[in-house]
């Protein structure tokens, strides 16, 4: 906790505007938390999509502050938010303090700025088409800025907290506490292992008659900073029409196309009432760029759509060798990637989009 606090105090303290939280002691902040109206002060509750329960974020009245409750260590979320504030123009809530929860004796409270606005999921239907276009252009700009943020390590995937240690990957298609992966290669090997496990599972269930082929994970793209939870509830518009990104708990170093993963899952949610608006889905390729949608549709979605149970089955890694199967029948022969024509088409589109965004930045102040 002390290491986290020291980073927090030393990173942007000199250039931050003052806040009521800066003058408060931990005891005073705890008193505000203890006086929360757990129903009236709850922020961001959306029953239709709160599959795992509402986010525990509460208004700390009478101040423009919120308290977010976390069950686990928050250093990666705080560190990432500070890194984004230092290196980009992305609007991110400031974290003023991280204090332990003395009511339950476990967990932490993040004290942050209150953003006076609405999440994009709620406001999107009311936006004009012109305003929607402005928002998605801003989101594309934000993602491009994230990809230019310097990473603490260029070869360690997943969340990071400035210590140099790898952390478990969370969110997207990762089961709970996947990893940690010390290198990019080991994360790629985990994906290949999931494919191989399913390959063995299908072969055994067909009495050895079916050979499912898979492609190896593509590591050609460098690791970049991804928010990795770009649901419309985590994008906010404030009263000045500025776009904010909130909830950085899943953020980490991943291939650029990983940014599409949560969007792709929500766009194809099993329940129609939980899916993203179609009018927003049309912009997802533009927002993330590149061949991200191809990787989601042809790799991640297929990896994630398999029965959950097979991941917990005991699989013999030498299954095919012991049966004397010709390696040509089961070994991957290619890396997962779109065709050259698809890649070049997307590349040309990105050049056009970025040129238009450059012109927009000269004419419009966001």
From TrEMBL:
A Pfam entry, by short name: APH
Keywords attached to this entry: Kinase, Transferase
InterPro entries xref list: AGP_Transferase (IPR051678), Aminoglycoside_PTrfase (IPR002575), Kinase-like_dom_sf (IPR011009)
Domain Aminoglycoside phosphotransferase span(s) in chain numbering: 74-272
Record's keyword annotation contains Kinase: yes
GO MF term list: kinase activity
Region (Disordered): 1-24
Record has Transferase as a keyword: yes
Gene3D superfamilies, alphabetized: 3.90.1200.10
Entry protein name: Kinase-like domain-containing protein
Species of provenance: Lentinula raphanica
């Amino acid at each position: 906790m002390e290491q986290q606090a020291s980073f927090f105090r030393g990173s942007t303290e000199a250039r931050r505007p003052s806040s009521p939280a800066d003058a408060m002691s931990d005891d005073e902040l705890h008193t505000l938390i203890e006086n929360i109206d757990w129903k009236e002060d709850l922020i961001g509750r959306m029953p239709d999509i709160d599959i795992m329960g509402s986010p525990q974020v509460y208004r700390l009245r009478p101040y423009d502050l919120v308290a977010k409750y976390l069950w686990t260590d928050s250093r990666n979320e705080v560190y990432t938010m500070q890194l984004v504030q230092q290196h980009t123009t992305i609007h991110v809530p400031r974290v003023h303090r991280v204090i332990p929860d003395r009511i339950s004796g476990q967990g932490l409270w993040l004290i942050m700025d209150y953003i006076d606005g609405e999440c994009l999921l709620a406001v999107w239907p009311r936006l004009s088409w012109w305003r929607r276009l402005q928002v998605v252009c801003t989101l594309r700009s934000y993602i491009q800025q994230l990809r230019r943020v310097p990473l603490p390590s260029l070869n360690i995937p997943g969340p990071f907290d400035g210590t140099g240690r790898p952390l478990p990957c969370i969110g997207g298609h990762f089961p709970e506490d996947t990893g940690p992966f010390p290198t990019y290669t080991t994360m790629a090997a985990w994906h290949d292992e999931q494919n191989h496990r399913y390959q063995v599972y299908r072969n055994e269930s067909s009495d050895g008659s079916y050979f499912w082929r898979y492609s190896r994970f593509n590591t050609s793209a460098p690791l970049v900073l991804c928010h990795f939870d770009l649901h419309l509830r985590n994008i906010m518009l404030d009263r000045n029409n500025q776009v904010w990104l909130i909830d950085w708990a899943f953020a980490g170093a991943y291939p650029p196309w990983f940014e599409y993963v949560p969007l792709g899952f929500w766009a194809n949610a099993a329940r129609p009432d939980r899916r993203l608006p179609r009018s927003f889905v049309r912009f997802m390729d533009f927002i993330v760029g590149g061949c991200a949608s191809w990787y989601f549709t042809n790799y991640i979605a297929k990896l994630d759509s398999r029965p959950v149970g097979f991941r917990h089955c005991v699989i013999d890694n030498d299954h095919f060798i012991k049966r004397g199967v010709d390696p040509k029948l089961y070994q991957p022969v290619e890396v997962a990637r779109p065709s050259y024509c698809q890649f070049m088409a997307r590349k040309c589109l990105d050049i056009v989009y970025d040129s238009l965004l450059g012109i927009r930045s000269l004419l419009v102040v966001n």
